[in-house]
Design goal:
301 residues, mainly beta, Neuraminidase, four-stranded antiparallel sheet, 48% strand, globular
Length: 301
């Protein structure tokens, strides 16, 4: 196991169970809580060391991925409302829901760049998969990755060559955008052997354009549903058997086994080095020696 990642052999510590399918975690430093989605349960859950697992909100229109904005607000994806929205202490408002007059499919995961732009994936799971949203149509005709500029109110496609774009994250200097394709998981629940189960890297130009896409990681057991990039540029990806860690060029350097299929993960805790892992109905913690790349970039101003 790579010594820069863990102080000792990593283990996944069970913190809580009780979700239906857990997704979309974010650590909120102000309240020292982890917030995440229970998509089929149509609710948002919260975990903290003092209270354990509690229900933050119900009837939330099938939220999925979330992240922190530059001012600490929670930016999240809504399958049911087909939009990206902002939650400020329970006051939820729309950020963006259309591209050239057509509704998005079901925004899935989201990151906020250091310039405040909101980048998000838009697969079709929420309008095609039972229990993850409401039946609907592909109104703009694709499944893309978008960049939304809050200053102009404009959403622009930045990646259009994936079948089902899912997780996404920037490299530490935001010069590379990583996006996963999970199209081996069909919305119908049937397998799709020819679909994607990989992470692709795109060079980012002028903070707004993506070029030179290439596949850097392929997950053999399951799919890279959600992933994060640490301060050294390593990719921490979900998989069917745990969390796999890769160098930026795709060399595997670590594995953290879990007893359940991993859906998503994020870094957090008081010092930012705890890896919170959502696996099926449960939440686990893994002690690491690294922090999230975006967290470190923002702390440097």
């Amino acid at each position: 196991m790579h010594p820069d990642l863990f102080e000792s052999e990593p283990t996944a510590e069970l913190l809580a169970s009780g979700a239906t399918w857990a997704e979309g975690p974010v650590w909120i430093p102000e309240s020292r809580t982890l917030r995440f989605s229970d998509i089929p349960g149509d609710r948002i859950l919260s975990w903290c060391e003092q209270e354990g697992l509690t229900v933050y909100a119900e009837g939330v229109e099938f939220t999925n991925g979330r992240t922190l904005g530059l001012r600490g607000e929670v930016v999240q994806c809504s399958h049911g409302r087909r939009r990206v929205e902002v939650d400020r202490g329970g006051d939820v408002t729309e950020l963006v829901s259309t591209y050239r007059g057509a509704r998005f499919n079901s925004p899935n995961d989201v990151v906020v760049a250091s310039d405040g732009a909101v980048w998000f994936t838009d697969p079709s799971y929420g309008i095609e998969k039972e229990g993850e949203g409401h039946p609907g149509e592909l109104e703009y005709g694709g499944r893309w990755v978008f960049r939304f500029d809050p200053a102009t109110g404009e959403a622009t496609p930045v990646v259009t060559d994936l079948e089902q774009p899912n997780g996404l994250a920037f490299s530490p200097d935001e010069s590379i955008l990583y996006v996963s394709d999970t199209s081996t998981d069909l919305p119908s629940g049937e397998p799709n052997p020819s679909g994607g189960h990989h992470i692709r890297a795109y060079d980012v130009r002028d903070g707004r354009r993506c070029m030179h896409g290439r596949t850097v990681v392929t997950i053999q057991d399951g799919v890279p549903d959600g992933f994060r990039v640490d301060e050294h540029g390593h990719l921490w990806s979900s998989a069917g058997d745990g969390v796999h860690v890769f160098t930026p060029d795709g060399r595997e350097i670590g594995v953290v086994p879990t007893p359940r299929k991993v859906g998503n993960l994020c870094f957090g805790g008081d010092d930012g080095t705890t890896l919170f892992v959502l696996a099926s109905d449960s939440l686990y913690a893994v002690r690491t020696r690294v922090r999230d790349a975006a967290q470190v970039l923002r702390s440097r101003g």
